[in-house]
Amino acid sequence: MTPGPKDTARAAGGAxxxxxxxxxxxxxxxxxxxxxxxDTDAAIRMVPGGAGAxxxxxxxxxxxxxxxxxxxxxxxAAAWHERELIASGVRPRLVVDPEAPxxxxxxxxxxxxxxxxTFLTDSGASLxxxxxxxxxxxxxGVARLHLSGYLLFSEPGRALVSLLVASAGARGVPVSLDxxxxxxxxxxxxxxxxxLAGQVDVLLPSRDEACLLTGVTDPAEAAAELSRxxxxxxxxxxADGALVARAGAVCARVPAVPAxxxxxxxxxxxxxxxxxxxxxxxxxxxxxAAEGCRAGARAVARVGGRPPAAG
Length: 311
Description:
9-stranded mixed β-sheet; globular
């Protein structure tokens, strides 16, 4: 499979710019079900997270030498998040919110075989990233722009997305989007999301997100349907790999890499980061999706949504 026109034009390299959420994850791994009204034994860790930040870190881990991140955090944890991102090789531009605290997500992970997780989310400052925070110079040297779908779940974020898509389009920079959350998507509304998603080059939904956005239950049909609206759809299927769709048809089924899951938090972000890093080498979508599956397998074997720190 060959890259599209924008991909081939920029295949020689350049920076990846990620705009999205930076949050603090509190991960509680337990052997379910939790005992109501009393104690349940759990292993609890606080780690840096956020879909946008995770994608940026995994892109560096997968070999992208210039990864930049724009996000908004509270003063309470700004210095810590900046240090953690720099340690992972990311070049952060964090806007410090004078009022709202850093977003926090409580990740409840069932430590049994599936290691599935439930999120309790306080988005905090992350949903306050706005057009006023943006500088068009941040696109200088950028070969690909990636947007976290969490931007779409606030009015300031939606205005920023419209600005970013227009600015990137004026420079010929391809734009990818990860829907981020089936739960938040349902609140936003499918048609509202699709109107915004129709402006990007690549859509990277999960299985649940693709089915929600199309109203069909078959993952392949959902990916194919979405590819009638977006030039390239790469639908993440977890343990079933990934589907690559163009022009209303699935053109590749990429198998998963076997893994023993410990925590599925951030697995989709790992896929996306590796996928984008591989695209920037000039590889086609199917090869990039295969790398994404490798990264996803590596991610579920770890606790937390980030790869090991650089060095």
